[in-house]
Amino acid sequence: MEIALGGMRLTTTVEGRQRFSVNARFGQDFRNNLESLKRLQVQTMKYGPVPLEAVADVKITEGPPMINSENAMLRGTVLFNVRERDLGGTVNEAKEKLDKMITKLPKGYFLEWSGQYENLIRSEKTLKMILPVVLLIIFLSMYFAFRNAREAFLSLISIPFALIGGAVMIYFWGVNLSVAVAVGFIALFGLAVETGIVMVIYLNDAMQQLVDKKGNSKDTITKADLREYVIAGAAKRLRPKLMTVSVSLFALIPILWSHGVGSDVMKPIVLPMVGGVLTSATHILLVTPLIFLMAKEYELRKQGKIEVLETKH
To answer: Cα 13 to the chain's mean position, in Å?
Structure first.
């Protein structure tokens, strides 16, 4: 049957520089005639030649258009696309339903989720390693800049507030959590800390002016003096702080309404940055001076003086 229908290579003919294989099989009219195939004689040991339909059911059926293999094993694929929801949640839900429907697979069979989901899992593992490293690098950079762990931690407080704004922006925009969104959050942390450093520098500059004027002792410095100079340090240089935030916003906001090539990738990155910059700026302008004031009042009460960092700007 294999030779009659599929053919068999007999020899190879050479014509000049070209080679052609010579195959033998039944003619096209015979191969397309189902009744002729049923009457095809098959040689048996006991009964001699018998028609093929006597030992087999001959019929036309649809088979697989392609046979795929991977790692020397046959593979069958089921493809589907995800719309209007996150990829990870969709695959997890599909896994739960399949586990309920298919309790046991035949021997040699197994299920494997691949494609973009496989890339998502790899990206999540990478981000879990990168995110702590990013936060550590930010903290060390601020520590070496201020030479004070408390001041570095004070600037780090802006990161949770930035995270809140980014999450709210993603929620209202209807974007699902993805690798691009995670990259946007990592970039947002740097922007938030940048603005916080500017605020801390000017607050320490105000403390230096207070010490130069009244000395560094709880006998000469009162809580009212601390409050006055903290307000002056937070408000006097308000314009450069707002400019730092505005430059970032003016560069990012137009991407939200873009529709060109690559906009579907850029929007998830930009969204958390826009929302986070707004909330972190609000925190830095209003909350950071208050926390700074409370820290200086504690230093004055416990140590009898305040710590003043050397600032250059």
So the answer is: 58
Could you list the beta-strand ranges (E) of the chain.
8-15, 18-24, 41-44, 48-51, 68-70, 73-75
Q: pLDDT, tens digit, for every residue of 101-142? A: 888 888 888 888 888 888 888 888 888 888 888 888 888 887
**Proportion of the chain above pLDDT 90, given as a percent:** 0
Burial of 307 (0-12, 13-18, 19+ CB in 10 A): middle
What is the CATH number assigned to the segment(s) 1-61?
3.30.2090.10
CB 187 within 8 A of CB 269: yes
- Nearest CA-CA partner of 292 in 195, 194, 164, 201: 201
Q: What is the pLDDT of residue 312?
A: 53
Classify domain 125-303 by CATH number. 1.20.1640.10
Task: Check: pTM over 0.70? Answer yes or no.
Answer: no
- Domain segments of the chain: what residues? 1-61, 125-303
